[in-house]
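note to self — DONT lose this again. spent like an hour looking for the file last time. sequence + predicted structure for the chain T wanted, 94 res
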Amino acid sequence: MQPRQNVNKFTDIPNVGKATEADFLLLGLKHPIDLIKCDPYQMYYELCDIKAQRHDPCVFDVFISAVKYMQGEPAQKWWFYTEERKKYLDQLKQ
């Protein structure tokens, strides 16, 4: 799988709209390619800290889908990653 070097706008990434684009910019990301090295879970917690509020868990899923897409994985609906997120977070509780 090749990273998607040719994606120029965050909103060109599946599942990413203007609100998520604004979140990425708030997190300090400048270009879609920056997502390749990001940890979507860390991004979520950092966003919650910046905005001083807890966000819906589906934001995890959108972040996971965007990062994986930019890393070269096939486009998936954001809810495809819900089960992965739940398992990951359950492991942290143990």
